[in-house]
């Protein structure tokens, strides 16, 4: 930055400072700058600073109490949201995690997906019967759903010279059948426990909704802080001193200064 630019910056800064001082101490140049009124300016400045300090402390205590109330409300709402999501997951667990797959079948925690044909469809594991069948050209897994409908998954095991279709080992198909049967057993156990789990979660949700003690305590604390701030003798004294200093300046200059 050149010397000329520095001079411009300094001049602008001084100009702004003069305007600010004239604003803070209205009435004319003498009242704003003359040593004759130094004590009056100091009295007004001191009263302003004291009032600001007391007001700042009051604002800080109220802000802390308000933050505690906000935190209590957030904790309350988060707990309700967690329980509501838990109940939703229990009522509609979806497919769950992927466990394994073989050929056209993909086994998930709660359903068995069939990927053959025009589209993918799911079979609920609850009440499902899975049975392995040894065939001459295809090993099969017969799936009988709780509705009674049957699906046959075929796993070719012969190796024709002109056929590049995937072939499946008997042991692999048997092991996958066992995996389905075990997943069905787990799902049946899960479904048996489900009503009790849902009832317990719903009860916990009702209790959580009714438990507003932390919010009420934080709200009472905020009310107490606000009341104490309004009745604070130091704040009243500082405000009174500022009003007196403002009035003295008005009587001196005929102009009302900003607080």
- Number of beta-strand segments: 7
Average pLDDT, rounded to a whole number, is 90
Count, helices: 6
Distance between the termini: 38 Å
Radius of gyration of CA atoms, rounded to a whole number: 40 Å
The biggest beta sheet is recorded as: 4 strands, antiparallel
- SSE string, helices as H and strands as E: HHHEEEEEEEHHH
Q: State the share of residues found in helices, binned by percent.
A: 55-70%
Set down the secondary structure blueprint.
Blueprint: H1 3-24, H2 29-33, H3 38-91, E1 98-102, E2 105-108, E3 111-114, E4 121-124, E5 129-133, E6 138-144, E7 150-156, H4 170-210, H5 213-231, H6 233-253
Antiparallel strand pairs: 1-2, 2-3, 3-4, 5-6, 6-7
Molecular structure report:
The protein has 259 residues and is α+β, with helices and mostly antiparallel strands. The protein has six helices and seven strands, in the order αααβββββββααα. 63% of the residues lie in helices and 14% in strands. Helix 3 (38-91) packs antiparallel against helix 5 and helix 3 (38-91) packs across helix 6 (233-253). The longest helix is centred in the N-terminal third of the chain and has 54 residues, at 38-91. The chain is elongated and about 115 Å long.
């Amino acid at each position: 930055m050149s010397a000329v630019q520095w001079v411009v910056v300094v001049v602008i800064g001084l100009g702004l400072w003069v305007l600010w001082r004239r604003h803070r101490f209205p009435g004319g140049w003498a009242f704003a700058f003359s040593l004759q009124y130094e004590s009056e300016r100091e009295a007004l400045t001191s009263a302003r600073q004291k009032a600001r300090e007391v007001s700042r402390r009051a604002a800080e205590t109220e802000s802390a109490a308000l933050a505690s109330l906000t935190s209590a409300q957030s904790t309350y709402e988060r707990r309700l949201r967690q329980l509501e999501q838990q109940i939703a997951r229990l009522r509609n667990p979806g497919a769950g995690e992927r466990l394994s797959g073989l050929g056209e079948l993909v086994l998930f925690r709660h359903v068995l997906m069939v990927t053959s044909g025009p589209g993918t469809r799911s079979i609920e594991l609850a009440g499902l019967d899975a049975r392995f069948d040894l065939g001459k050209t295809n090993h099969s897994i017969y799936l009988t759903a709780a509705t009674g409908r049957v699906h046959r998954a075929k796993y070719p095991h012969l190796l024709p010279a002109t056929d590049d279709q995937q072939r499946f080992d008997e042991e692999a198909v048997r092991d996958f059948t066992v995996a389905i049967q075990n997943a069905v057993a787990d799902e049946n156990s899960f479904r048996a426990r489900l009503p009790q789990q849902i009832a317990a979660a719903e009860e916990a949700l009702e209790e959580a909704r009714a438990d507003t003690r932390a919010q009420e305590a934080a709200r009472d604390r905020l009310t107490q802080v606000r009341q104490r701030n309004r009745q604070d003798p130091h704040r009243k004294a500082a405000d009174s001193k500022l009003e007196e200093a403002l009035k003295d300046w008005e009587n001196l200059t005929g102009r009302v200064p900003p607080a």
